[in-house]
């Protein structure tokens, strides 16, 4: 760490500490004589895959968002290699993770998300999601046999339905989306949204899909999967105040909520599947059943949800 810090204009190393909580990357809080920073080692991306994400964040920072842009080292580089992994250092933002969402935080997120979507429209690099159609076809097939029969039926029927839906709806508006804007990827300070972090699922995709990812995490009762309608109204109303979805986007909304639920049910199942022989890793995984319940609730709730 001392060697890494010496390659930046960050003064002297004071201390560093691993951050627990993330499941994809290795993160450290770093304190130097000039301030606090976060060091991220990318565990799932190779070196050449990382610049896209750094460019997305730089674009949004340029547009005034509090997002963690990579610092430049003394050689003019923002991406390094540490222990064989691509590595960056970013500013550590003030604030802390919410323990849970409420009507006010949902309102702030709804407005910020709409602005983020508008700001992402003119970002020129268009990267496909690494967790899109191909991924869910392959992953669902690979883990189908590990599931209870009714889980497998739900998973495979939803994948088949979305294949058809997606082929018919490619024309829906797209932008550069965050792709994983769960409330644990935001920081709040004094009741205000102080930063949006973890852009490593960013891609060029449907705007309403990203909106649905956010609604499913921020507005669901995790015990039942049902929407908390007060949080839901707060987030949706704040969003549409900043960016009004078209009639076609509104018609697609119930499907977007389902696709977004499937995406995270499947990624949690995949992570659980990969970790199942390693009790320590297994204990760190997010619970797939939360997103199974959300998907089941969205499937039950057939009528259009957008007000
Ligand atoms: N720039 C930052 N400023 C403050 N805290 C951060 C920053 N980046 C990460 N963190 C903290 O580290 C945790 C894990 O980071 P994250 O990027 O979400 O990693 P992972 O992708 O592994 O989940 C976050 O939930 C947050 O508490
Ligand atoms: N938000 C995802 C997990 C993404 O990984 P993380 O490393 O950001 O925690 C989920 O909740 O399934």
TrEMBL record:
Pathway: Amino-acid biosynthesis; L-threonine biosynthesis; L-threonine from L-aspartate: step 4/5. Keywords: Amino-acid biosynthesis, ATP-binding, Kinase, Nucleotide-binding, Threonine biosynthesis, Transferase. It comes from the Bacteria. One of its GO terms (molecular function) is ATP binding. It catalyses: L-homoserine + ATP = O-phospho-L-homoserine + ADP + H(+). Its EC number is 2.7.1.39. One of its GO terms (biological process) is threonine biosynthetic process. Residues 16-222 form the Aminoglycoside phosphotransferase domain. InterPro entries: Aminoglycoside_PTrfase, Homoserine_kinase_II, Kinase-like_dom_sf, Pseudomonas-type_ThrB. It is an enzyme of class 2 (transferase). Gene3D superfamilies: 3.90.1200.10, Phosphorylase Kinase, domain 1 (3.30.200.20). Belongs to the pseudomonas-type ThrB family. This is Homoserine kinase. It comes from Marinomonas spartinae. The gene is thrB_1.
């Amino acid at each position: 760490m001392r060697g890494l810090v010496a390659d930046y204009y960050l003064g002297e190393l004071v201390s560093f500490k691993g951050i627990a909580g993330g499941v994809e990357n290795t993160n450290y809080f770093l304190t130097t004589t000039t301030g606090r920073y976060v060091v991220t080692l990318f565990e799932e991306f190779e070196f050449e895959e990382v610049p896209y994400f750094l460019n997305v964040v730089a674009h949004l920072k340029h547009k005034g968002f509090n997002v963690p842009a990579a610092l430049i080292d003394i050689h003019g580089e923002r991406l390094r290699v540490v222990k064989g992994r691509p590595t960056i250092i970013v500013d550590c933002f003030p604030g802390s993770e919410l323990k849970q969402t409420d009507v006010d935080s949902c309102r702030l997120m709804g407005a910020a998300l709409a602005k983020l979507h508008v700001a992402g429209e003119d970002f020129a690099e268009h990267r496909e999601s690494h967790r899109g159609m191909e991924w869910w076809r392959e992953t669902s097939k690979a883990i189908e046999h590990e599931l209870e029969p009714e889980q497998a039926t739900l998973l495979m029927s939803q994948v088949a339905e979305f294949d058809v839906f997606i082929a018919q709806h490619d024309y829906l508006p797209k932008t550069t989306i965050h792709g994983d804007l769960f409330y644990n990827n935001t920081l709040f300070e004094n009741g205000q949204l102080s930063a949006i972090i973890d852009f490593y699922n960013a891609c060029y995709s449907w705007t309403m899909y990203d909106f649905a990812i956010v609604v499913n995490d921020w507005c669901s009762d995790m015990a039942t999967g049902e929407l908390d309608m007060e949080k839901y109204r707060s987030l949706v109303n704040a969003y549409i105040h900043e960016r009004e979805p078209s009639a076609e986007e509104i018609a697609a909304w119930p499907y977007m909520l389902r696709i977004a639920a499937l995406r995270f049910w499947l990624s949690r199942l995949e992570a659980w599947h990969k970790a199942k022989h390693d009790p320590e890793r297994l204990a760190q995984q997010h619970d797939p059943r939360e997103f199974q319940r959300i998907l089941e609730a969205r499937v039950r709730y057939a009528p259009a949800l957008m007000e």
